[in-house]
Specification:
This protein is an all-alpha fold and 216 residues long. It is 65% helix and 0% strand.
């Protein structure tokens, strides 16, 4: 596979990942809203409307919402690796020299890939055996293996993201970094020192203009 094909594959995968997470989040929010409104509105003694609302069976809404949040969390974790939004304790790593810091970071990324790869393998084996049973979900009565499929798929994608980040870091020496100073709607994000963590961002020191610039 050529570099252009890999780049195209990554762009398509990134887009599908974002669409899936966004769709699940929006659908789960809408379903919760409808279920809550239905529950409270059915308590009002309005002739005709109350009988119609009580005839609607939304007992499956909570179960489906849980399933959607599970899938969203698994694929959201992979998205977090790709964009660098996971919280990490890097105090000791940042104190190392650049020469010593690189192998430590690579070790951490490859350890994450190994762990998620093992989870994906065990999850796939579990789903395979579960698919040969008649086990279904309590309310929706879906095959249980369909729900648990989020474990091997999400973990495999997370493993790929760890390897992707490790390869780019080994090549360019750069890690994905979430900018806490970036605010939606602002054209220019706030200047944040890239050496700080995501929890305690420290603005970049702005030097006072000198010479002709200071006189303006």
């Amino acid at each position: 596979m050529t570099m252009s094909a890999i780049s195209l594959f990554n762009r398509v995968l990134d887009r599908l990942e974002e669409i899936l997470i966004g769709t699940l989040m929006a659908a789960a929010t809408l379903l919760i809203f409808v279920a809550v409104v239905h529950r409270y509105a059915a308590g009002f003694a309005i002739p005709g409307l109350q009988d119609w609302l009580l005839s609607l069976n939304l007992s499956w809404a909570q179960e489906l919402t849980i399933f959607m949040f599970v899938w969203m969390a698994k694929f959201g974790a992979a998205y977090g690796v790709r964009t660098g939004i996971h919280v990490g304790v890097d105090v000791l790593v940042n104190r190392l020299s650049p020469r010593r810091r690189k192998p430590v970071i690579l070790f951490g990324l490859l350890a994450g890939a190994l762990f998620t790869g093992v989870i994906a393998a065990f999850g796939a084996n579990f789903v395979w055996h579960l698919s040969h049973t008649d086990q279904t979900t309590p309310d929706l009565e879906w095959p249980a293996w369909v729900v648990y499929l989020a474990i091997p798929l999400g973990s495999a994608l997370m493993c790929y993201r760890f390897l992707q980040v490790a390869w780019r870091f080994n090549r360019d020496g750069e890690l994905p970094h979430h900018d806490p100073g970036e605010v939606e709607g602002l054209d220019e994000p706030l200047p944040i020192d890239p050496r700080t963590d995501n929890i305690h961002p420290r603005p970049v020191a702005v030097q006072a203009p000198t010479g002709a610039e200071g006189a303006r």
